[in-house]
Amino acid sequence: MATIEDVAKLAGLSRTTVSRVINNQPYVTEEKKIKINEAMKELGYVPNSSARRLRSQRTETIAVLLPRVTNPFFGQLIESLEQKASDYGYQVIVCQTHDKKYKELDYLQLLKTKQVDGVIMASLTNEWMDIEPFLDSGPIVLCNEYMETQDVTMIHIDHKQAAYDAALHLIEQGCRRIAYASGGRETYISKQRKIGFCDALREHNMWLSKELEINEVLDVGDGQTTFQYLKVHQPEVDGIFTGSDEVAAGIVYAASKEGWRIPEDLAVVGFDNQMLSLLMVPAITTIEQPVEQIASKTIQVLVDQIKNKLSAPTQRFVYPYELIKRKSTDCNTVKKTAR
Amino acid sequence: MATIEDVAKLAGLSRTTVSRVINNQPYVTEEKKIKINEAMKELGYVPNSSARRLRSQRTETIAVLLPRVTNPFFGQLIESLEQKASDYGYQVIVCQTHDKKYKELDYLQLLKTKQVDGVIMASLTNEWMDIEPFLDSGPIVLCNEYMETQDVTMIHIDHKQAAYDAALHLIEQGCRRIAYASGGRETYISKQRKIGFCDALREHNMWLSKELEINEVLDVGDGQTTFQYLKVHQPEVDGIFTGSDEVAAGIVYAASKEGWRIPEDLAVVGFDNQMLSLLMVPAITTIEQPVEQIASKTIQVLVDQIKNKLSAPTQRFVYPYELIKRKSTDCNTVKKTAR
DNA sequence: ATTTGTTATGAAAACGATTTCAAAATGTAG
DNA sequence: CTACATTTTGAAATCGTTTTCATAACAAAT
């Protein structure tokens, strides 16, 4: 492989000048610039990335931590994040934590080992006190995750309010025994959602009984299992709030197969407005997050923090969401007619 | 940030010895090893990744090129690839090409700039002659993509035969005017599928007319559009083969909304056996690829090539697939009863 | 006591770029 | 023609490791 030295020799100039051309800095005559470019082309020269990273202490790379790319919401998120990052000249490396604490910490090491200039956490399973020390090694931004602390910038929607709205909607549709299926990880987000959900219930003199709260429900399969459980143990359930469209889809699928009518027998609400929620029969009521805006702001903030090493005041950006009402909760018929 | 030098000083030893401990090489007394480990802990030392990459000329990183992570098939693939890679101690960086030639070439530069030790191409939109030169910079393996050439190792299923089987199935179900919706990119894979599809038709004295061939159909939205087109311009169509479950789902969705019955009015076949194909009403007939096996072999082969720099003979690994028959093609009723 | 063979250690070179600093070349104003 | 500013260039230092090579220390064998 050709090095910068080879190029310099071939062009009859110094490494320094070649470096100037590579990074198109000023103070190189047009004539030599051409000569150098020719030399580079002739040798098929490409600067060695490790060397320039080492010397310049910049990697132009951002790590995005998320649970898993197979979750369409995060697929969509990573898509937008990458798009935006590349606008700013940054590369993205995708880190799947699978909701494992140790993986999350492992990936944060990327910041310490200087493999990345900054980190976006769209996965947050550790306690903040375990994350916080990493801030010494570089900027971190929370995307779609959040917490009480103010030590870090966060970009997200109001999950508590969103869950409240969803629960209220179910209540307004006539549901009286509403189940709650949560993405199991005990994150701040899930706690917020549960609070919002319970608030709505309480305001209508209802409450979430232990038997109607199901945890660790993540994907379509879990949704199916959840329905089986409800059918056997809580057959009087008439509505359910889920943490994702996948789970909701699993429930709708299993319920339909068992002859339950959606929404008459069971009204279902999902989360994230994935394509899946629209395609299901019946289409699933869900909450839409402004993914692109969130992604856009996240990158903007992180890049800013990378560039202005002086730690800017941390901020919190809360974006609006939208409850999208579809057939899965459209109970204008009387609830629970003969099943 | 502490450097190896700082650790050496604190431990009263040399950089070399510290380096030996870091890479747990032999020839360090237990006593000094302990002293050094203490020093590292005290300073919170972590080796700088760029420096070691530069010196050792290894990155322990693999690039995976694929069209987009929002396509669930590739989401699944990346999931498996990452899993396997980490078993071998390799990191994966995900590179979305969005079927753009220039992006594909951009990402291949990672090999030249020594940012990665090897590349997995699950996206292949360029001509081979444009890719081939990159082989000088490091190993490349084709995963789920393939072509005639024998210059590179390939892992895939027989897409031609799979499309043949799917078409045959449609014919056996009584379809007589079968449309073909293809993921537009003019890749070898799509060509193979089309050949297989047409072979089946020809063997039954049918052929694919221009009007029933629709290209550049990639996602659910495209599927919907495709149905609208067929409905208006080719209403006598009674079966359709699609390049992905997403497209198939879009068609089923649009068709149902317009009052067409699936499969009586239109039988639909998807590809990849994504969750979506099972959840749709009706469930969609599709082709399942052994993603895990493909991923596993891909990593194994690539890592082998990275380690044994001597270029092993290139090979081709062809895995079996399975046609999964579901309701969307279950035409035991008479086709085209009054619509 | 000397040789031979391990084990243990460190000084210095190397990896391939960028950055600093000094000096040379050129232009421009007085 | 001189003085000063600006543009152009390169030698050498630097980034933080790993690798090479030389040598020291120790044990076992002659």
From TrEMBL, chains A, B:
One of its GO terms (molecular function) is DNA binding. InterPro entries: HTH_LacI, Lambda_DNA-bd_dom_sf, Peripla_BP/Lac1_sug-bd_dom, Peripla_BP_I. The keyword Transmembrane does not apply. Keywords: DNA-binding, Transcription, Transcription regulation. It comes from Halobacillus campisalis. The keyword Membrane does not apply. It holds the Pfam family Peripla_BP_1. Transmembrane segments: none annotated. This is LacI family DNA-binding transcriptional regulator. Residues 2-56 form the HTH lacI-type domain. The lineage of its organism: Bacteria, Bacillati, Bacillota, Bacilli, Bacillales. PROSITE patterns: HTH_LACI_2.
